[in-house]
Amino acid sequence: MTTRVLIVDDHRLFRAGVRAELGPEVEVVGEAGDVDSAVRAIEELKPDVVLLDVHMPGGGGQEVLRRVLGKGSPVRFLALSVSDAAEDVIGVIRAGARGYVTKTIGGKELTDAILRVADGDAVFSPRLAGFVLDAFASTQAPPIDPELDSLTQREREVLRLIARGYAYKEIAKELFISVKTVETHVSSVLRKLQLSNRHELSRWATARRLV
Amino acid sequence: MRATAPTCDDAGTMPDKPPTQPPTASQAADAPYPRLRRPVEGRLIAGVAQGVAEQLRLDPVVLRLAFVLLTVVQGVGVVAYAALWMFTPSVPHTGPKPARDWAQLTAYAAIGMALTALTMLTVGTLRGFGTWAIAVVGIGGLVLWQQADSLRQRWVSGAVRKVRSSWLRTAFGLLLVVVGAIGFLAASGELAAAQTGLMFTGVVVGGIAVIAAPWITVLVKELQDERRERIRQEERAELAAHVHDSVLHTLTLIQRNAHDPREVLRLARAQERELRNWLYQPRADADRTVAAAVKRVAAEVEDEHGVPIEVVCVGDADLTPRLNALVQAARQAMVNAAKYSEASVVSVYAEVEPEEVTVFVRDRGKGFDLDAVPPDRMGIRESIIGRMERNGGAARIRTAPGEGTEVTLTMKREEP
């Protein structure tokens, strides 16, 4: 069974490029170029994964996430952007995307990322891992919710290896754990990132306009 | 690469001109014997002082003070000014005439007033308390007027300039004027008589204020809008200049090098990096921090060897000599990875922790046998391991043929 994908991006050339690069495991069922048509296409086509551009006319990726996930849709989102600004990355993850990759990613890696998101796992680029480590380390204030507001030692190790450019398989080998366990750790970090209501997280993202 | 660079240099080597000197001054200075003329730009009354200043290559302020002084002494200044006004042609001027700087003019008037009063005091025609009061009013007015514009800071004496807060100076000036005015009335024995007059004046001024208030509000708002619009235009101009100098230039280069994919890739990467820096980098940090330095050396290596280097930084710290050694060792590791590993991309991860800083340089290239490296290969032994150990840090290299390479560099942070 192939994974059904919808590509949402306001650059036609880029959509065509992604379509050509994706492997045979995924099937592109449609494209959309703005927020409204993206929301419509998701309702009609019911794709497994939406490849979502962060910057688009009419509110951008976050607006699509808000309108679709607000209705309780089971569709999963993978954010794809040229921007590496912390506020964009953290913003779109907090809005509900299951992962974030930059547009420079190769076709093979993008296909893998789509399949991983389709399986319900999270996809972290090295840069996103760096942001998360930075954001969770940047405060001295005691966490409001200890479970959600801090990372475990193991999660930290996994994120650090992602930031160092390791693939999940390499991380598993390095830490003597299974790939499935790596995925569990990353998903847990994603959940904390989305649910933690620590103000520092958002404030950090806007304050640090990092590359 | 930047087209604006030469003009920047020009601006840098030009001597700083006083801000009030108009562009016509430099034009007139070019001619060997410039004719005495009255320029329109920068004039206060008729441009006489401005014109004479250009002729003599002096600051117009000197001439204006001279005219004021001569006027005070015997009224000669006024006569001289009038004569020069009549016999000097004015510089032909096109376009809207620039507004006179009334504030400066008032300042000169205030100086004249203060000087007159002081002269009378010293010369002795009108010795008495009342003349002192006029002098005080003049000085107070001067303080108030210089206060209105930062450009007129040159009017302030050193003692007054030391009073930093502007409202304090304003209050000081107001106090001088009011005390001087009341003092004058009291001295001439007319304070009691003037009470009705003062009341009348107060009512009239209050009435005018009420009438003029909406108009002044609108005026202030328009001024603010205009300033905002100007800032917006300046930003737009800066953006346009930047896009022109960087992106358009690179696109041209890419078209010209279309046959060389490696060069095209290098140009595109370099431009992307530059644009990202410009868009997202906090402008304050120059090259003073570890993260900025790691990104900079990565960019240099990327440019030199044409292999993309992905940099991720967590935390940051000021760049000390030891941390600089760490960055240089990391640079050597990047160079090795880019040159010998044959990997398509190099990953760099720098983490600043409270006690130590760690940099990982990793590639998925062909790797090598560490023991088989000849002792004379300076790159690894000297530039990486040796440099780290000399500075109290440690380098660990993990590699095997076919398994890529990861260099881990650790340096303790210095005690503050």
Protein architecture, described:
The complex is a heterodimer of chains A (211) and B (416). A 6-stranded parallel beta sheet of chain A has the order 2-1-3-4-5-6, sandwiched between helices. In chain A, helix 2 (35-45) runs parallel beside helix 3 (60-69), helix 4 (86-94) runs antiparallel to helix 11 (199-207) and helix 9 (168-175) packs across helix 10. Chain A has helices at 12-21, 35-45, 60-69, 86-94, 107-118, 126-137, 146-149, 153-163, 168-175, 179-195, 199-207, and strands at 3-8, 26-32, 49-53, 76-81, 99-102, 123-124. With 211 residues, chain A is of the alpha/beta class. Chain B has 416 residues and is α+β, with helices and mostly antiparallel strands. Chain B folds into 3 domains: 20-191, no CATH class; 192-280; 287-412, 2-Layer Sandwich (Heat Shock Protein 90). Chain B contains 14 helices and 5 strands. Chain B has helices spanning 5-13, 23-30, 48-56, 60-74, 76-87, 102-123, 129-147, 158-161, 166-187, 191-256, 261-280, 290-305, 321-340, 378-390, and strands at residues 309-314, 346-352, 356-363, 394-399, 405-412. A 5-stranded mixed beta sheet of chain B has the order 1-2-3-5-4. In chain B, strand 2 and strand 3 (356-363) form a beta hairpin. The longest helix of chain B is centred in the middle third of the chain and has 66 residues, at 191-256. Chain B is elongated, with a radius of gyration of 35 Å. Chain B starts with a helix and ends with a strand. Residues 1-32 and 149-163 of chain B have low confidence and may be disordered. The chains are: A alpha/beta (211), B alpha+beta (416). The interface between A and B is medium-sized, with 20 and 20 residues.
